[in-house]
Amino acid sequence: MPLPPAPSKRAAMLPPEAFDAPARSSHKATRKTEAPAADEALVAERPQVLDDLTARGLGVGGDLQEEYGEVDTETLVDEEPAAPAAKGRKKEVTVPAPLPKKKKASGPKKMFVLDTNVLMHDPMSLFRFDEHDIFLPMVVLEELDGHKKGTTEVARNARQASRSLDALAGTQGADIAHGLRLDTTGHKEAGGCLFFQTMPLSPSGLPMGLPPGKADNQILSVVQALQEKHAPMQVVLVSKDINMRVKARALGLVTEDYKNDKTLDDLDLMYSGSLALPPDFWAKHGKTVESWQQGVHTFYRISGPIVPALFINQFVYFEAPGEPSLYARVIEIRGKTAVLKTLKDYGHLKNAVWGVTTRNREQNFAMNLLMDPEVDFVTLTGTAGTGKTLMALAAGLTQVLDERRYTEIIMTRATVSVGEDIGFLPGTEEEKMGPWMGALDDNLEVLGKTDGGAGEWGRAATNELIRSKIKIKSMNFMRGRTFLNKYVILDEAQNLTPKQMKTLVTRAGPGSKIICMGNLAQIDTPYLTEGSSGLTFAVDKFKGWPHSGHITLARGERSRLADFASEVL
Q1: pLDDT grade, residue 476 (50/70/90)?
Q2: pTM for this model (two decimals)
Q3: How far is 141 from 181, CA to CA, in rounded Å?
């Protein structure tokens, strides 16, 4: 490389710290060994470094950030000092500026072939595959067209998926032959391209026993042909159909379930709402604890290693033999400190709620949430017989009839049958929901017997009053409604999808409270799992919000027979 022209005047000497500022070790070694060399050696060497950096920064030769660290290419390219010699020196000693870090790819780029059921399950699945490409066989578009009619959830999803495909194909400069960029409609998280099948694809090795006319087999043939055509790129079939995935594995194809709809992969990771304090809690935190009394409650301000693991409205408890127990709720977290508030004991007869007292620790936690007017959204999970419906009804009746905090109780549930459907039901909306509300009748029978001194006539009048304050509504007619000052109970919420859960929770108006209850081991909705249930979705999204709370009820209190059956059956 020719030397630059000689400088017009002598340049100022560089400060000693400038020699250690830039990056490459080879140049540092050169400077150390040739420290007595003349200025001309520096001038001769550094323009070559500049050209190398400039070319790499502009994408001509390799990855600038990988070789030189994070370097500000604008400083290297755009600044133009007057003297060429000074130019070489200035570029070398410029302090590197950090570049915005891009999201690194988790591995080599893949191509995902989507089955029709994935698009009908989640119409936004097109944009959930990060930087990877998506391929849609022609038979998938045919099946989408066949399912778009009707008012079901599947039909709505099929129509939304079709609209997304139309928007991608209709963007300016879209070229189906070379792929449609998935980020052109505002979904910046999708960095890949969408490809449609535009020509027949015939694989070489499909077994003769697969009927070629079946849609699933046509998709499998497309996947195998793409794997042969695009090797070594990995082609992955994504399907919600278990049999489809089994057939694909039998053919030696890579296949996966669609996992983006799952809130949790393992139910053991689900937020339980309570936390046991370690046995050495007071030894580690006792010296820094501040406490004060306010009314009947005691407050503790703690700091220490346990604070980052806490959430607002999470319950903490300390139980150790020979030491006083502590049951409290986290009401404030600021930096490295948290404030705990002791609980009201609803297990004592003087604090009974509509004649009901709590029988274990988790039930007491739940009743504190149900009776707190500052908590607008409560989720309760637990096995059969843990008292979810009874406590929710008792708290609702107390706050509606005694405290007049809410005007009425609205109760609804997902109408999913355990067995065969018994057909259409006669009567009004409330009468049609009657057979589904057996749990309500059973619990009202228990609550109606709590007042033993009123006599038969008094109990009948109480039951009539209770019935007048409870409205049974169908979930099908909730769209567009707004509940004002209502106490809303969503029973069997484990059978709701996340979209249905959002529809119901957003019905809450000013002064309303929503209680979601369910047993995640009793899901009856097809294609819904514990990880993708709307109840799991709500628990995970609302944890830590100051006006919501969750508790997992651990012990059944129905009967010894029900407890034993829950464990062994």
Answers
A1: confident
A2: 0.68
A3: 18
